[in-house]
Structure formats: structure tokens, C-alpha cells
Amino acid sequence: MRAFLEGLPKAELHLHIEGSLEPELMFELAERNRVRLPYASVEEARAAYDFSDLQSFLDLYYRGMSVLRSAEDFHDLAMDYFRRAHAEGVVHVEMHFDPQAHLARGVDLEVVMEGLSLARRQAERELGMSTALIMAFLRDRPAEEAMRVLECAAPYWEMLDAVGLDSAERGNPPEKFVEVFQRARLLGLPRVAHAGEEGPPEYIRQALDRLGVCRIDHGVRCLEDPALVARLREEGVVLTVCPLSNVRLRVVERMADHPLPQLLEAGLRVTLNSDDPAYFGGGMLDNYLACFEAFGWSEEIFVQLAGTAIEAAFVSDERRLALHRQLAASA
Length: 331
Ligand code: ADE
Ligand code: ZN
Prior knowledge:
Elements: H1 2-7, E1 10-16, H2 23-33, H3 42-48, H4 54-64, H5 71-87, E2 90-97, H6 99-103, H7 109-127, E3 130-138, H8 143-152, E4 162-166, H9 178-186, E5 192-195, H10 201-209, E6 215-218, H11 226-235, E7 238-241, H12 243-248, H13 260-265, E8 269-272, H14 284-295, H15 299-312, H16 317-330
Parallel strand pairs: 1-2, 2-3, 3-4, 5-6, 6-7, 7-8
Adenine binds next to helix 4.
């Protein structure tokens, strides 16, 4: 099964590029930029990645990204991830990035965009990988700030495949960002949002109704609301589920308790993703393997999940067809 899952052409729809920063690169960049880290070694950093909830992770996640200063750093971060993902059979990556977290440290959007754009072109050229870019707003910051960032991003609107909504979910409902997402809609930008990770099913409804999102990131708590589940099924809404993330952030206690089988049983369209692979103990292949170990799924189910990711990806019709053909050839 490992060889099969490795060979499966996997599309990743839910990844925070800053969450792909492995401790090894974190130390290298800390030295490059003379940034002090709160860890004495790579091992100590990894040992600190023991989370009790989303917020306890976010604290280390924002601290970790303090080593990212120049366009070269962002390029190296993304290429480091693309190479690892490519080696695991990932053929398409959609990456969220958090401009506000960088602006707050004095790193301009221009720097982030230059580095990520360079890496995207290189991944396409050298690895044959396609990528998409999702500019995420931090929901625990004011909506006015998100709106300013969206306007400041004018030179880059063409380079964005979507806007997203992430960071601390509880107490920060999607409706807080209605105007920002309305503006994104007018700009012709597709929208996604994290909802129903730690937050209630109501946040999933709000993301759909008030923000007009085309996909829900996580969404696992929808199961608490049968009417919502029926709606998600009828509308074919895709959930970008991140099983290892959910275990590490204690959304569920262990893989065996993960609601993925119930989501599939309910007829929902789900995909498997890594979220923040450097912090949650594994990339795409590890997430696929963890599902095999926990649920004993057949090859057909993994082909279905990989197919759903291709269907829901922000790619051209031509690229989607090529990915579907690659999947059919591997299965
Ligand atoms: N930012 C990075 N990872 C996240 C997650 N799992 N949930 C919300 N915001 C995030
Ligand atoms: Zn996420």
C-alpha cells in the first residue's frame, strides 16, 4: 500500500507554506538572518511541538516564521517543501500564506511574493509540479487590516488563485470578514475559509452563506449538524481535511477517532491534506498512510480522494484533464 500511495498523483489543497518550515531550515535561516531562536537545537524544536489546541500551535508557528526575512528565504522555504512533496508523489500544491504575519514583522508583501513566485516557477520547470497561491487573512486580527492588505495586494491580484481565512477560529466568526470577502468577490477572486476545525458548525454555514466560499478548510465539525451535512452533500462542497493536524491539535484524540469515515459515509466530498507538515509529523504521504493504518481503506477509496482533490483544484481545464489522466494511469 505504501508504494501504491506513493505512486498516486496527489494534489494538496490545504497547506500553509509557513507551516512547512522544518527545524533544519529554521536553524539555517536563523543563522543567515541572525535571528535568535528559543530552541538550542533541531531536536529541542521538534520536542517543543507538543500542542494542546490550535492556539498553542499558532504561538510556535508565528514564532518559527520570524526567521523568514528576504525573498530568498521565502524561495528556499517553498522549494524545500516542493522538493519533499514531489518525492512523495505530490503533483499539485495549493499554498496558503499569511501576509499579515510578515507585515507585522516588517517584511513587505513584495518580498513574500517575489520569493514564492520564483519558487513556483522553479517547481514547475524542474519538478513538473503545478502550484496555486491562496492569500489568507488572519481572523484574529481586525477586518479593517485584512481589507488594507487586500488593497495593498493590487499588484499581485493576478497572481492569486484565491483568498482564505485562517488563524484562531474560536470567537472569530466568518461574518467578521463579510466586507473583505465581498471585495474579493468583486475582484473575481475565489474564496475559501477555515471553518469547523475548532469552531462550531455555524461557522461553516457562515463561510458558505456570508463569504461565498467554494471550499471549506477542515470542516470536520459539520457532523454535529445533520442538516448542514445534508446541505454540504447536496451542494457538493469540498472539505480539505487534515487528519494528522486534527490529531496533533487535539481536534480528535487519535487517528482511530477521526471522523473521515463518517464524512465519506455521509456522501461528502473530502480531500486529504497536510496543513502544517513541519509541525504535525508528516506530509501528504504520511497523511494518506495514517488513514490506511487507521481505517484500512482500499485503493479505490484513495483514488476517489485523490480524484476529488483534482476536481476541486484551482487549475486550468487542461491541467485538470492531465492530472485526471495521470491518476487513471496510476490506479
Ligand atoms: N494557520 C496555520 N495552520 C492553521 C490551522 N490548522 N488552522 C488555522 N490557522 C492556521
Ligand atoms: Zn489550515
